TrEMBL record:
Signal peptide: none annotated. It holds the Pfam family Abhydrolase_1. It comes from Chelatococcus asaccharovorans. InterPro entries: AB_hydrolase_1 (IPR000073), AB_hydrolase_fold (IPR029058), Carboxylesterase_BioH (IPR050228). This is Pimeloyl-ACP methyl ester carboxylesterase. Residues 39-274 form the AB hydrolase-1 domain. It comes from the Bacteria.
């Protein structure tokens, strides 16, 4: 199946999920939305999320005239789990470069890549690898250097989640405890983004092997990101969550020192772990950046 269906679908009409075959014998799930001839925006979720994290953003981009492609990365959502169990940043980035290359076979126009957290890291590495195919990159609350205490909290949460939960309510309590906010009164909607195994335990829709400490911010990630920041040649926007547990003011300045052309927008009131699904808070800044890029390119 063509990775970018050519249809007369309207901006709001649902389109079938597409399977994008990658090297290694597995495939990623992708969902297209918005005007077929609109400028394309590839949306990449963070670790332990899925393309569903972009549902609100997809609608906002469609109404703004953009053609969005939201993907499930390896081991997440409806995509295949990595046969070798590898989920390091370099594996994410390799997959993303393959996706961008596939998209270019169907439509040669460069694509904007917007990624949250691990997805943002992958977006930057992909922009360096494929400067002719990536028009710009947007990183949602992730920088080459990050607060190690915040990384440790995220690592602990992922490792606890990988063990599964006895009930949907227990899962909701775990999230509320991590986010330091009250649990929502209704948890019924949570079940649609969980899976239940044969023993009745509930898990997030990602491969539990992803929580292996080898894959959650090893020292090599900072080296990869710093090198990418020095070498990227396309416009880059950093959206910092105002309540981020991960990105500090000094981390932003470190990023600027590596990439003097970096644009930065700070969005108050949101922490790192909900940047992937609080689209309405930061998408206006992303859309404004995309419009500036398209005007300057034109």
């Amino acid at each position: 199946m063509s990775p970018s269906p050519k249809s007369s679908a309207s901006a709001t009409q649902a389109e079938p999920v597409v399977r994008l075959p990658l090297r290694g014998g597995f495939a990623l799930a992708a969902e297209f939305a918005g005007p077929p001839l609109g400028p394309r925006v590839l949306l990449v979720h963070g670790g332990a999320q899925s393309r569903r994290a972009w549902d609100v953003g997809v609608g906002m981009l469609s109404r703004a005239g953009y053609r969005s492609i939201a993907i499930d990365m390896r081991g997440h959502g409806d995509s295949d789990w990595a046969p070798d169990g590898n989920y390091a940043l370099e594996h994410w980035a390799e997959d993303l470069t393959q996706v961008v290359t596939l998209l270019a076979q169907d439509d040669p126009r460069p694509v904007a890549v917007v990624g949250a957290s691990r997805g943002g890291q992958s977006a930057l590495l992909t922009a360096v690898a494929l400067p002719a195919l990536v028009s710009c990159a947007v990183l949602i609350d992730v920088t080459p250097q990050n607060d190690e205490s915040g990384v440790a909290l995220i690592r602990s949460f992922l490792q606890r989640s990988a063990e599964g939960f006895d009930s949907v309510r227990e899962c909701a309590d775990s999230v509320a405890d991590f986010m330091k906010r009250p649990r929502r009164s209704s948890v019924s909607g949570l079940a649609r983004i969980l899976r239940q195994d044969a023993d009745g335990r509930w898990f997030w829709r990602w491969d539990p092997r992803m929580a292996d400490s080898r894959f959650v911010r090893p020292p090599s990630e900072q080296i990869l990101m710093e090198e990418a920041a020095r070498n990227v040649r396309v416009p880059v926007l950093l959206v910092r969550a105002g309540m981020s547990e991960l990105v500090r003011a000094q981390d932003v300045e470190h990023f600027r020192a590596l990439l003097p052309t970096l644009e930065v927008e700070e969005v108050p009131g949101i922490p790192h772990m909900i940047t992937g699904d609080s689209n309405a808070a930061f998408l206006p800044a992303v859309i404004a950046f995309l419009r500036r890029r398209h005007r300057s390119a034109g």
